[in-house]
Amino acid sequence: MAAVALGTAALPALTAAQTAPGWMHVDAAKKTVNFDMLMAPNGTNGGLNFNGYHHGELTITIPVGWHVDMTVTNKGFGAIPHSMEIIKVSEGIPAQGTEPPAFDGAETVELNNGMTVGQSDHATFTVDAPGKYWIFCGVPNHGVGGMWNYLIVSPTATSPSVDIKAAPH
Fold first, then answer.
1. Could you report the per-residue pLDDT of 136-162, keeping only the tens digit for each?
2. How does DSSP classify residue 12?
């Protein structure tokens, strides 16, 4: 896992001693991971980002069978609605959210209309199928505009991890 600085006041920086970003909380004994997913916390990619990352710059890997709880909040940069859904990676990026999500419960309210600025929701689900998925904004054209990152469900991982493949934003 890379230790990188996230580079904004809204997103705490990582230090070499940290094993996870401040927005990821792991309970290995319960095989549970919690994420604070901020939509549009800054102006990166015109506000079309999750925790400041877009176009697949962020990859979250979770062992198969773990329980996931994502607190998803529209922080509102650009004052536009956003949503979040976990969907299977496909050949082309969908124009908007699709039903059903990859895992039961892996989406926020108002999938296509989006949550208003300041609104939060929980996506709570179990990752029971190995594979590569998108963390995707279901509001029309937001995903096409780059508001997506990766979620890998791994049969070989022993704990959740985060990999960031971009310069700090």
1. 999 999 999 999 999 999 999 999 999
2. P
pLDDT at 4 over 60: no
Residue spans per domain, the chain: 24-164
Distances (CA, A) of 30 to 17, 26, 122, 138, 149: 24, 9, 19, 30, 26
Gap between the Cα atoms of 28 and 13, Å rounded: 23
Check: pTM over 0.85? Answer yes or no. yes
| Residue-level pLDDT at 167 | 56
Cβ-Cβ contacts under 8 Å for 77 (sequence gap 6 or more): 40, 41, 42, 43, 47
- Do the beta carbons of residue 137 and residue 82 sit within 8 Å? yes
Predicted pLDDT of residue 6: 35
What CATH number has the domain spanning 24-164?
Answer: 2.60.40.420
Label the pairing between strands 131-136 and 58-63. unpaired
3-state secondary structure of 70: strand
